Amino acid sequence: MTQTYSLVTGACSGIGLAIARELARRGQSLIMVSNRDTELVAAARELAAEYQVDAQTIQMDLARPEAARALYDEVACRGLEVDTLVSNAGIFFFGDVIDTAPDRIQTMMQLHVVTPSLLAQYFGRDMAAKGRGRIAFVSSISGWREFPGIAYYSTSKRFLRGFASALREELREHGVSVTCVAPGAVATSLYDGTGIPVPLAVKYGIMKDPAGVAKAAVRGLSRGRAVVVPGLSAKAMAVAMTVMPRWMMRWVHKKRPLARLSAKTAEQAEGSCT
Q: What H or E segment, with its residue span, contains residue 108?
């Protein structure tokens, strides 16, 4: 039987690394992709040694317009067959639209919208031809509602939610399942420099540990679920967002200083494992 691989983007830390670890724990060989080569290689060596799986690395900036095709071609050049695709790479920053640098906007839209949708097309076509495969997009519960202060982030995650739903129906008849993973706040390096007390948030269940999110994500992916919202608090927040009145959103945006971080602080808060 041909060896198959699970490809995970943004796999050097946070949710991406946790998902790669959970897949490796289940005996799946890995293709780990990130723009941070040193951390990526170290993570791959660790997982390969601990779980006795093949863990290959591809160092690539997925924010480049040609990245999706380049990644697909590199995988093909190595002769690897992708059975599972997990599009996780992304960034996060606070800031109003008119205060956000154009290059940051382009980076987020490329990472959250263009690259994942193209990867799904390239690898999804191969999966459909074989009659099997699994695709997962890491979205967010912020995708349930557009939020001022994180307009680009929430709407890009909303795109992933809708895209996953449509693609699921298109690929269903070809034996390929598509899952949208929508976590709430997760204790990762995304919140470095924001002043948010992450350990306290985890202790009281406001934030979830990446390992818990990964277990729920991989379990849902293996069962072919359409949507996975890890944790009771995230599920409750997703419901609350759908009924939150717009005046309350305006009030929160006006009162919460995080929504108006300076460009310097926002730069420190930006996630970089892409």
A: helix 102-109
